[in-house]
Design a protein that fits this description.
Blueprint: H1 4-9, H2 19-39, H3 46-69, H4 80-102, H5 107-110, H6 129-141, H7 146-165, H8 171-209
Helix pairs in contact: 3-7, 4-6, 4-8, 6-7, 6-8, 7-8
Amino acid sequence: MLSIYERGLNNKVSPRETGADDWRAAIAALDTRVLKWMNSRIGSSPWLDTAMVVAAQTLSFVEVALLLAMLPTCGTNRRAVPRVILSLVVATLLVKLLQALVKRPRPFRAEPGLRHLVHRHPGPSFPSRHVASAFAMGVAALPAQRTIGALMLLGGAILGVSRVYVAVHYPSDVLGGAVVGALCGWLFGASDIRSGERDGRTSRAAKVRGWPF
């Protein structure tokens, strides 16, 4: 027997169901409608299809390249790169935990009739690991490298849209991944800001007291 969650994904929700089940089913149904609307655009514009496929398959590598681009700045901010990497690791572990708990099937398994443009990964769908990684790195990088952090976040947003377009994820998978990643990035990025403020106060105090460092 299908659960309320699964029936919501398949637009088979009974109007008699109320309370918490009701709003969960409504969100699941909206999730599916947005997915199907985006997926229905496939074929209407060949250049858009190509752009979405390229984004879905390559932007994760662009995110890694942006992380590597931060390495030359390690001398000016030694904490930045380790904290970005740490936020990435923690976000990945949280995503794996949530995927094991939720066990949401991929759209191409749960929704018949979807069009597919990329390889169909068999793993759990919620939340999106790729989007979580991008947002974790982007938010953590912002305090030290605003340009690279902003590019990571922009890439993560485009990546999320593209993976819904090609039916690899539901919209809520992408949103969930963004939230998990942003929280992890904020946790470590905020600590970078606090450390920088402490270092700044120490440096100013040293100058006032005449210390040579």
